[in-house]
Amino acid sequence: MFALEVRDHIMIGHSLPAEIFGPAQGMHGATFTVDATLFTQAIDHHGLMVDIGLATAALSAVLDPLRYQNLDEEPEFAGKFTTTEFLCRHIFEQIAARVRAGELSDENRVERLRITLHESHLAKAWCEDDI
Amino acid sequence: MFALEVRDHIMIGHSLPAEIFGPAQGMHGATFTVDATLFTQAIDHHGLMVDIGLATAALSAVLDPLRYQNLDEEPEFAGKFTTTEFLCRHIFEQIAARVRAGELSDENRVERLRITLHESHLAKAWCEDDI
Amino acid sequence: MFALEVRDHIMIGHSLPAEIFGPAQGMHGATFTVDATLFTQAIDHHGLMVDIGLATAALSAVLDPLRYQNLDEEPEFAGKFTTTEFLCRHIFEQIAARVRAGELSDENRVERLRITLHESHLAKAWCEDDI
Amino acid sequence: MFALEVRDHIMIGHSLPAEIFGPAQGMHGATFTVDATLFTQAIDHHGLMVDIGLATAALSAVLDPLRYQNLDEEPEFAGKFTTTEFLCRHIFEQIAARVRAGELSDENRVERLRITLHESHLAKAWCEDDI
Amino acid sequence: MFALEVRDHIMIGHSLPAEIFGPAQGMHGATFTVDATLFTQAIDHHGLMVDIGLATAALSAVLDPLRYQNLDEEPEFAGKFTTTEFLCRHIFEQIAARVRAGELSDENRVERLRITLHESHLAKAWCEDDI
Amino acid sequence: MFALEVRDHIMIGHSLPAEIFGPAQGMHGATFTVDATLFTQAIDHHGLMVDIGLATAALSAVLDPLRYQNLDEEPEFAGKFTTTEFLCRHIFEQIAARVRAGELSDENRVERLRITLHESHLAKAWCEDDI
User: Fold this and answer.
1) In terms of Cα–Cα distance, which of C40, A9, B10, C10 is closest to F121?
2) From the centroid of its chain, how far is CA E115?
3) Does E13 touch chain D if contact means CB atoms closer than 8 Å?
4) pLDDT below 50 — which residues of chain C?
5) What is the largest CA-CA distance in chain C?
6) Touching partners of C (3+ C-beta pairs < 8 Å)
7) Is the pTM of the predicted complex or chain greater than 0.90?
């Protein structure tokens, strides 16, 4: 099995308005370092899983609508708690759609995907699944 | 699959009195950066696997009896070699017991656990298993 | 010259409402990893600059009012742009006041202070000056 | 399941002479931080998976022929694109052979292996498989 | 005193053809993580030293001619040993020229500059001077 | 001004038997990641401050007597508190002696030295001075 991982980051604001979130209920924010990890069984005759430039561009394109945004005002997140875990899955689904659409390679070689969000030097979360 | 990982650290002394340990046979010590990684299939309606504060508190509570200790003098480790791998499993069992006792979430959502100990910038070990 | 550095972090929300801030003008946020570095010419007979526990506690106490806050709503920041540089200086002044008040050591051994804020894996800023 | 990971690095030159590699077609180079991760189901009565000194020595020995080399001139890579993924597999096979030869432990306890190459602070790849 | 630091990286090939360089005499290469640190005495009424976007763009522009290059074939480096220290100074001079030309701020607020090149997880070098 | 920094590490045991050390009074230990930073005004015609291999070897040689040791039993530390700051100065003096003896370069080009000990992911200390 092969894996390829590329990194980008976003800085966002949001609130988590439920009692369980304690001090994080009000408007605050985070820098999320975001890693996208692609998994495959085989590499091609160029020795590649996918073109790393395309992988980096796909991650950047998926993060663009989130950069410097107040997630509380994003219609697609209405009624949702934009936790680190939730955002992992959201970004997972966006990248997975691009993989399935053939944006990263003609042969849809990527079989599995992991999206990791580091919320601080002490905590991170990830979402991983087959595509 | 979702994962959530939190970090803490301990500074301990110990010896590894068997020939195979070479220069580490005598009393020495280590700073172990400790990561606890919790795995689950699903997050709840708050977008959470478990409360990150509870996860951090559980890791801290498990590490408290080890902080600044000479592991050679801990009765529970008598006759054991407190290697990095051994300590991974010891901490794994302590955290797993707290998960099973429902300390991290009412629904015992955590299905799998990984405990990683970084012993230096060049070496680390982990223990991972279902709970 | 000796230096001692301790680390903590905050997650905050804010806006930077001036044209020069481009995409960061609206409400967004950041995780700031915060390092406090204390400088002195001499260590004491215990081999210490200051007690590391006291240094860590002072940094934590200074960061407490900022944790999970929307800085736009903090009266002390009214009319200010809470940039990374500005926050470095703000935290610098808070820690410096505690040093001068003798909170970290009886002898006011700390002569110089640096406060570093990492805003992402690609950018950081610091403020450094004599106390 | 237990894992043990050790780190080393190499600095190499190479070219990637195919159109898909874009700006990386000509002679350039990389520092690869290399992590070798060994997996096993059980540790022995010393609390060890394998001796960490032997694991470190095996990784170093496998990397020695690559250190400071122009990979374009290595006969064993003739006609190959020495991508990060390709080098992960190459190093994987070299370490796996040493494991199977009993170099790391008498009992061939290592069941699975992962080789990770970090090519920059933004990208890494790995190859993982049973031995 | 304030400092602002931004990060980028390059992957290059080169040789160091003198006996003192031992195993690094032949064609090989490196990934250099490059940090540009700008120093000033005062920040402006926006709370800024310089616009971080302009600092990042200046660093990127200076690194562009080096990305994926064989430094042995760069006319400007003819007869030079392109060591880590040498490249620190080369990049220093390029960024300093842009600062002096007013590219980063109208008021030429930057008074001092440091360029750091990390050549591996074990070694780095930097060049620092007034502008 | 130029700087060159190399990294190594040690794992040691010690006690800090004075009330001020609180929980660290008994036998415990630490992994210290150790950085040696050499400073000079000028590099030579090879583009070097000092040979990086010699710098790495000097650091390793100075650390060798400390590796896996119980510092409480080292005669040279009798009656001393082997704090992080103290060990920074001890290693500083050992490296400085080697620099002055011409071990790193014939011309004694190194003018200043910094020794940094990272005791955890949250704390470090350094000692810096002219040679």
Assistant:
1) B10
2) 5
3) yes
4) none
5) 54
6) A, E, F
7) yes
